[in-house]
Write a structure and sequence with these properties.
Elements (H helix, E strand, L loop, with lengths): L4 H7 L5 H6 L2 H12 L28 H15 L1 E2 L2 E2 H6 L16 H14 L28 H13 L5 H10 L4 H8 L3 H15 L37 H28 L6 H4 L7 H7 L2 H4 L2
Antiparallel strand pairs: 1-2
Length: 305
Amino acid sequence: MACGCHIARAESQSASGAACVAAGSFFADEVWAKVGGQTCLKCHHANGDAAESRFILEPTLHDSAALLRNHKAFVKMAKAQKDGKPRMLLKVTNQIEHEGGVVLKSNATGYRILKTFVERVQRDTKPKSDSTDKPAYLSPPFFDGVEMISPRRLLRRTTLPLAGRLPTDKEQAAVDKHGLDAMDVILDQLLKEDAFYVRLKEAFNDIFLTSFPGNDTEVYAWEHFPNRLWYQKHDLSTIPGSGTDQRARWHLADVYRQTIKREPLELIEYIVRHDRPFTEIVTADYIMVSPYTARGYGVFDKVRK
């Protein structure tokens, strides 16, 4: 789409500085793309409801020169005033007679675009480069004003959530001496600590929601437990201090069920701790068992060695 400043001058040698600015990317990308082509063109064209008005626009899809003609129409309308106020803004808000009624409210983005355009035309702004010619209503780039934290603060923000501890003196000395280059070695060591795997399982339980207090048989898949009620017949006399106390048996059953719900999390830990492909969370041909679940699966005698 041809919409540059040089095109505006080629079409009309009398184009003012403000007109030239508006004919650039601001008019094409903001005024025309978001307001003129979407709203005004519906009625203000040769065969539209506003065909008899003096504000006639053209489709630009197959006619790049039409953008320049539309720009000239917008500039002419932006210069017009009614009782000292911009006629264009009064029209779109229906503050003066407008057959289309209210097409833009004063708090709408489209209205603010037109207001910016009118102000540019009326104050005869000199041309600016696109790099600095940004509408005031647009948000600044997302990362504007972001500053990188210091290596020391980064270290603290790494050890606290991943290992639940403050940085050691040795780690602080390393980042003081080598900066961010020291973080790779520190992270490698951090990810070998037991505390990291506790945190890892906590995080994945927030996704899996399998390890929780209480008893919910819906998560157990009992069809895979040929000996799922083993605890009812287990000889408690082998457990010091339990004797035949029913409460000890209830506790045994509770621990058994909790270890079942922890199996997916133990699989995550095993895969990460042994640096196995993470796809094994769904493709592994093995499972994790405890002494309790091994009895339920009927494989205790096979794995206890």
